[in-house]
Amino acid sequence: QLPLVESGGGLVQPGGSLRLSCAVSGFTLDDYAIGWFRQAPGKEREGVACISSIDGRTFYGDSVQGRFAISRDNAKNTVYLQMNSLKPEDTAVYYCATPYERSCQASQDEFGSWGQGTQVTVSS
Q1: CA–CA separation, 87 vs 33, rounded Å?
Q2: 2 band by pLDDT with thresholds 50, 70 and 90
Q3: Residue 89 gets which letter from DSSP?
Q4: What span, in angstroms and rounded, lies between the C-alpha atoms of 121 and 111?
Q5: How distant is the alpha carbon of residue 11 from its chain centre?
Q6: Distance between CA atoms of residues 10 and 12, nearest Å
Q7: Which of 28, 30, 113, 124 is the most buried (most CB within 10 A)?
Q8: CA dist 18 → 2, 66, 115 (Å)
Q9: How far apart are CA 119 and CA 92, in angstroms?
Q10: Over 80: is that where the pLDDT of 37 sits?
Q11: pLDDT tens digits for 93-120?
């Protein structure tokens, strides 16, 4: 499978917003779910959000619930992560990946097609 391509990261002040994009090739968003993950220096990778390809149902990690929103544009074969009310602790490299199934129930180890990631830095 081709790696997914993340973009949209950057430097933002606390309280600001960013929108990340995950460009998909080799399959369509109807085929598989897409998840967003992040990894901060010295920390384990954590799940941030996931969108199911069955019904578009979304799932979020506790630390981003209510601040982040995952969405998809099937025509562009792209998944987005809208990040609002950003905090310094959101600083990390953000990745998207697919579990090669339509639901978001897979464990993190089952996700693949990882991209290079995009750096998000929240700092004043």
Answers
A1: 27
A2: confident
A3: G
A4: 24
A5: 17
A6: 6
A7: 113
A8: 25, 15, 19
A9: 6
A10: yes
A11: 999 999 999 999 999 999 999 999 999 9
